[in-house]
What we know:
- It is a single chain.
- This protein is mostly helical.
- Helices cover 73% and strands 5% of the residues.
- Helix 3 runs antiparallel to helix 4 (78-103) and helix 5 packs across helix 6.
Amino acid sequence: MRKFLLAALMVLGATAASAQKFVMVDMEYILKALPAYERANEQLNQVSKKWQAEVEALNAEAQNLYKEYRNQAVFLSDEQKAKKEEEIVAKEKQASELKRQYFGPDGELFKKRESLMTPIQDEIYNAVKDICEQRGISLVLDRASDAGIIFASPKVDISNDVLQKLGFGVN
């Protein structure tokens, strides 16, 4: 009787497990197909280059101040040396602070990326959610993340369906 109960539980468990549907999407593939994503990336690249140039300009100013200081050090009094050194340190600190402000963990680039990408990600999420609700899908994995996925059949990849739901034809 015990073996029968154990076997029945295993069959029920297998039936319940097979009732769940799992699919995959390739977020990298989807994002690359969206013009809005490409435009957002281009904006981020332009802003990043502009800000990087500002930081590099301040660093160059600090280096020039240091070179001038080294060239003039023998002619300067101790008081003048101290003033020049403070000026150099202040310029280096200014460059460092600007770099942190733009590129730090909570910097302007992070905020800009978030403001540009969140609407795109939300749109994709809603498309995936709609498809999953229509098809009774329980779990969606991202193929692009390589999170322990060793093999996935192309039959369970709904990336093209997501693109169609977003209004983009598949090549």
